[in-house]
Amino acid sequence: MPLSIQLKLKNSLKLSPNIEQSVNLLKANELEIEYLISEFLSKNPYLDLDDSDRVKINSLAYSLDNLQDSENELLIYGYGLKDYLENNLFDLGLDYEEESIANLLIDYIDDNGYLTEDYGFFINEASPEIIIDENTLNTIILKLNQISSPGIGARNLSECLIFQLDQFKSNSISIYSKKIAKNYLKELGNKNFEKISKELGISMDEVLKCNELIISLNPKPGLAYGNNKNSEFVFPDIKVSKENQSFKISISNNYESLKLIEISEKDILNSEEYNQAKWFLKNINYRKINIIRVAQYIFQYHKNFLNNKSLEFPFTVKMVANELEIHESTVSRMINSKYIETPFGIFQMKYFFTHEVNNFSDNLIKKRIKEIVDSENKLTPLSDTKINLTLHKERITISRRTIAKYRDQMGILPASKRKVC
């Protein structure tokens, strides 16, 4: 066979290390930023921090290490799996229809990370204008795995394990492990290794290696994210206080003492590390300045919040991005998993965006829900899911949970109790 050379051109976008670092710092919350600073200081000799700040950072970094080694390891997210997935959807670059389907799927994922309904449920519930088939649902579930953990959104234990096994390099053990996860979990649980060996035509040693791989997987990947009931490790990134007719915004930890060491150019032994230290300091300051700018704009817009805890008007990521002249993705990353301490308590930054949906206030959304219910066929009343899909067609992105909450607030019964016999 003659040899031939083929050239293939492929466009790809790869972030530079400095830009990637900037993105990671923007996304980090208060506790995570402490940890990242501590890690950088331990590896790079060209940044310095005074003793009091260093003690504070080392203490929090130690706490984070301990949390990661304990059963409560990831309760530092401060909210449940559903909120975590919703907060990170932006990073997937979904189109509007895909995002609508993703939000619907997220609403039916339980604390263990499993989908509580089969694919047929979503296909039957979908309106004709939104095309949903099994391939579409599976593709979006796999995308949700990219922003969370492999196994999230699986319909059962077998599928959950297979999603995780798909992350391993393809070899005989991973391939047979997937076959065992699909067809022989009962036998594996009963340690009936001989039957598995015989039916798959593999050696007992291979079966034992597959067993070792499978038991190393996480059967309940959603538990790592905690839930809204038991999440307790919340550290506010921003503090806002009322001062007469105005308000004061401050970042929880400025770390103003974080700076480059004073050194002459001729004494720099590693110029690459020195430049990395300059970039890290620049990215930290960029994060600090822009988080404060976003927080200031939030309370300039929601002026009455500090008086009566009310959010009266629509407020979107796009509005903030346009006002501050920064990209929407930057705003999205800055409000992700961050908290603001106010006179009324601690709130997610995202909370101040939740009473607006595509320029609709919550009152207008309630009104639209009532209109949809009033016009429904009383013999076949609409479920919350179908109301949700109707709103999505109108570019009103809202979760089924919120629809149920609004419906309860308006005294509208669930679909099963609205049916006229």
Distinctive features:
single chain; 421 residues; alpha+beta; Arc Repressor Mutant, subunit A; 4-stranded mixed β-sheet; two-stranded antiparallel ribbon; 7% strand; flat
Describe this structure in words.
With 421 residues, this protein is an alpha+beta fold. Among the domains are: 81-147; 157-217; 357-411, Arc Repressor Mutant, subunit A (Orthogonal Bundle), CATH 1.10.10. Helix content is 52%, strand content 7%. It contains 20 helices and eight strands. It has helices spanning 17-27, 30-43, 51-69, 81-88, 96-107, 119-125, 134-147, 157-165, 172-183, 185-189, 193-200, 204-215, 271-301, 305-308, 317-324, 328-335, 362-374, 384-393, 400-409, 415-418, and strands at 47-48, 238-243, 246-251, 259-260, 339-342, 345-348, 356-357, 360-361. The strands form three sheets. It has a four-stranded mixed sheet, with helices on one face. The protein has a two-stranded antiparallel ribbon with strand order 1-4. A hairpin with a 2-residue loop joins strand 2 (238-243) and strand 3. Helix 9 (172-183) packs across helix 12. Residues 7-13, 67-78 and 228-232 have low confidence and may be disordered.
Secondary-structure element sequence? Answer: HHEHHHHHHHHHHEEEHHHHEEEEHHHH
Number of helices: 20
Helix content: 40-55%
Indicate the multimeric state.
Answer: single chain
Radius of gyration: 26 Å
Number of strands: 8
Mean pLDDT: 80
Global geometry: flat
Cross-sheet strand order for the largest sheet: 3-2-5-6
Low-confidence stretches: 7-13, 67-78, 228-232
Distance between the termini: 75 Å
Amount of beta strand: 5-15%
Largest sheet: 4 strands, mixed
Report the structural category: alpha+beta
